[in-house]
Amino acid sequence: MSNIGILGAGRVGTNLAGKLSQAGHHVTIGARSPEDTAARTVGLDPRIALADHRTTARTTDIVINATPGHSSLKRLTDLRTELSGKILIDVSNATHAAADGLPGDLCYPGSSLAEKLQNALPHTHVVKTLNTMLYMVMTAPETLATPPTAYLSGNDEHAKKTVTGLLADLGWQPEQIEDLGDITTARATEAMILAVPHILRRHGLKPTAITHTH
Prior knowledge:
The protein is of the alpha/beta class. The chain is built from ten helices and ten strands. The longest helix is centred in the last third of the chain and has 13 residues, at 157-169.
């Protein structure tokens, strides 16, 4: 079992924390204000620890970035020392909000948040995954009628193998996981997020994922 830190205490972070804790991992949620987070996470597995971002990054072995994508680069660059030598799983999308608050344009056209993070954190193994779906699908892929796909992007094969194991703990079957290649392939999956707001506007907030079938 792994010692996992999750940066971000919103729906994505708390959802992942709950499922990973149930699978037996030691989980710490890192938030800017752990006191406020404690109030918002009532009902979560009591084994889940709460800390600030820096402590979470320093004291865990695998770190998940579930912070808002548009500010992730600055936040995580500030944690360069704490993240050195660790696997960083990036599930965020860096977008500018449209008028209705849903994702509009990409913050890094021609690149991706994952690539920016890997460049800023050269001693960290960045793996991009789970960013092509709504938060509820991340931990319950079986709820969709068509099996969804979890795409992987990253430069380090061992890191991607480790992340694949964590995806299995979240309920993903091997045939649902698609390794696209190195970290530059994340720009493709990050661009996919631009389709999701149009789907949500038509159908409402229902479990949604960008997928392909073999």
